[in-house]
Amino acid sequence: MEDVEDEPLFAGRAAGIDIGKKTVMATVRVPGEHGSARRRQETREFGTTRRELEALAAWLHSWEVERAGMEATGDYWKPVYFLLEKAGLDCTLYKASQVKALPGRPKTDKLDSAWLAVITERGSLQGSFVPPEDIRRLRTCTRYRRHLVQARTAQKQRAEKLLEDAHLKLSSVLTDIHGASGRDMLSAIIAGERDPAVLAQLARGMARRKLRQLEEALDCTFLTDGHVFVLKRMLRHIDQLNAEITEVTTRIVELCRPWEDKIARLSTIPGFSAATAQDLIAEIGVDMRVFPTPGHLASWARQAPGVSESAGRRKNKGAGHGNPYIGGTLGEAAASAARTLTFLGAKYRRLIRHMPKLKAQRATMRSQLVIVWNVLSSDDAVYNDLGTDYYETRADTSRRARSHALALERLGYKVTIEPFHPEPDDPVPVTRAS
Fold this sequence. Notes:
alpha/beta; Nucleotidyltransferase, domain 5; 4 domains; 9 strands
């Protein structure tokens, strides 16, 4: 038997805070008496108003607390974390699913706060990423804009269902019934026009090639006053949402002025727009020192596939549920990049040959996130597309030739592989017979 030395504490003076809606329970753990290895702790209860939280900060300062740890409980942690951070305390936020007490131990607010203090002083868990204040202000606006866009999309879908209920097959002819042509026709219907020929003449541009189909689709025989009443309010709501989105976007542009150069460089990534860059910066920030490598960022955003191994067998695991705002933003960007003649578009089309489309899209999303990390990590980094022929120019030509030969053999052909300009070291031509 040998004596071993215990690991030093991560924080000699630590605090754990169990957060509720109306009250918080705080426990402080500090060194014991002179030369004693035991720890001393004290627990107090505070309210969640500003005055009570300032009293909590003063109490922690009186104990010279080095680090305060708390659990992410709904949105109730935000005022506690932000006020203590503003008071100069080093705060750590833990993911709720990782903070678990020992099995069989009674669970109370007091015991939970003491357990959080123990976790904090030992450094048992890694804290969650909490962006700085300027990024948090931007995040509030970008997330609200996404909710407004989702509400507008839902309202447009309701309007299309209402037209189907009225047997107006406008969406079968026009790609976007809320475009210039479709909106003019809907406004005319609300104003009282019922003649299909007159409504079809409101078409603009390319839609005028479909006048005959539009006349058939705009038959108002089954349209009732109830349909018109609801449609009018739906279109008004869509207009209100459009105005709100425009105002919020203007505010976002103002908040993003310090990072205009970064947004411009991110916008050059295939599938990205200025709004995409704004949304990503609001979620991951601009300081990539928080994520040491692109893999750390991809893992944090749940864009890296997990691996599970048991009894020597490795099983693929899904990436899990991560930040829904990052997932939504990257999903839209990857779907857009898949339709481009770029390296990312070629990669997506290459992957869907041997895997589901959703899985190929997730792989494209991860590649985009790696590019984002590299662009944000340097002030002069720019994205240079590798081209659609990147994989073809670097692939093993002999392996590809054998693959094509085998494919032809399966169709019942005899294949001979011979280069046009053989080199001295080239292998002897191979002939395969089925």
